[in-house]
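FORM 7B: Structural annotation worksheet

SECTION A. Query
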Amino acid sequence: MLQGSTAAPIVVIGPMGAGKSSVGRRVAKALGVPFTDTDRVIVREHGPLPQFFAEHGEPAFRELEAAAVRQAVLTGGVVSVGGGAVMHPDTRAAMAGAHVVLLTVTAEAVAARIVGSDRPLIAAGGITAWQRILDERADTYAELAHAVFDTSRRPMSRVAEDIVAWVRSTPGSDAEPTPAAPGTATPGPAAPRTAAPGTATPGPAAPSPAAPTSDEGAP
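SECTION B. Predicted structure
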């Protein structure tokens, strides 16, 4: 079981609108560990993300984001990161030794969640931009993930319960990531990524109820 300051942190990754903050917060509460939303940390210290993107550009944001992720991982517990955080090499390095959980969601399900979003990279392009960005990041998500949980059709609370069950079944949480629980994939370029027990892999789905759009601001 992951508990205490010596346990390996859990980093939640995935595309915009997948529910990373909503799920991460619930997982942290269930495990009794700290929760950090790196987007919120950046907003608190540097102001609204759309404004920062407009004034400083994406590369400057990714540098700040990498530093925020590094500090959050050192703090421990559960860390939710922005959708594009994994594309920066310093962020990926900061995640070494953590248990990485990938949340997936279909375009159909996420459409209602991002309506009216001010996320800088999809504000103008909507679901088309979302899909293009996901396609660009999908291989990196898959390479990093130790377990995959789909949020398209299920309440965030149920997804969080599944993650907590996976975490508690994962032995040796103090150092390097351990093999994933049965039904999940271990990292590696040749390993196919499969969903954890009780979840569904992405596929055609009816739109699900919108998740709180305030949870995840960074693209």
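SECTION C. Observations
The first helix runs from residue 20 to 31. The longest strand covers residues 99-104.

SECTION D. Sign-off
Analyst initials: ____
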